[in-house]
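Readers of this paper often ask what the protein records in our data store actually look like. Below, we set out a record of this kind in full and without editing:
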Amino acid sequence: MPQLRVKLTRSELYHKVWSIPVYLAARDFRISINSLKNICAKHEVPIPYKGYWSSLKAGRNPEKKRLPDPTTWQPHLIEIVGTDFTRLRLQKLARLPNVSVPPVTIATKGPVVHSLTARTQRLLNKPRTDDAGILVSERAFLDHFRVSRQTLSRGLRILDALFVAFESEPFKLSWPEGSNTKVTVSVLGEPLRFSLAEIVRYTPHQPTRGEIFRQKHDWFWRPPRWDFHLTGRLQLIIDGIKGVRLRHVWSDGKRRLEACLGEFLISLVAVAKELKTERAEQGNWRQRWDSLRARELEAAGRLELSRRKIASLNQCFLDWQHARTVREFLKALEEEIKQKGTAGEQERHLLDRARKYLDSVDPVGNALQVLRRLDDDSEASQCYRGEAI
């Protein structure tokens, strides 16, 4: 997303917020008012107090707050990152694309045409009603159709017209046999669900005297929390796409729901394309993340190898200093024995042990082998990381 980056000093920011109101300065920086106030508070830049601009407009000379320590503050530059005006488009619904969809024709009389609509009608032959008065089937879970007895006929005709339209490209309707299955519409390979329901208005329930009396004598009984009122208005919803910037709800209002079915079909196609784009972006993000993770592991391996080499060299240097001390001690011991002229068995044994210890601690001959072994370990670890990735 395009952004606006501004770098300025504290003095420049101070003169900016005291020359125009804060909301205008925030608009120039393309950030919110609270963000600008937080930046000023973080860098100890005072802002005009309440009533300053009114006093200035009235011709008075209001007092300005001084900028504290303008020369010693660190850092010298303040970076403000603002968002371009194109972000405003994200706060609005995206326009529906111009795509071709099959026509939707609602029959005014006669039986239903589609077999799935007839199946829905059969499942609602002997229904029960919930607390709100919505018909509930005893034999199957009708998640896509929730209406009352008053709107049943109209809802079936709208559902029948939609099912007939879903038999054409790019739609594919699916409702397998089974009590727990749901109606699914595949659009461009993307499975989507929808529901046709009656709008129910509910208000908080005010307990009656009888209910209060019953509650006092029956501690396990509670009155209902809500009162439900059927409105007779139908609502068509695309389920599970609240994050997509497309319209997904249609209901009776200025226009009846029958006039919005074409927009509903177009939105299904647009939602399917949006989901495909989102999935592609997620795949690209995952690929970039894996590549970045591989580079981080490789850099961490090189850093660990360098650290181990430096530690080994430091240890070799300390061992070399110790070996030099042992060598000087051995030389002094040999000279002392030579001066005395007596080289007995104990003296020879002491010299042999000193020479062997010198050979064991002298790192000059072992340093190259240590570094070569570290290189071999690093190559093996890189191969292992490559197989793991």
Q: What stands out?
A: The longest helix spans residues 261-340. Residues 115-279 form one domain. The chain has a mean pLDDT of 81. The chain has three domains: 3-91, 115-279, 291-388.
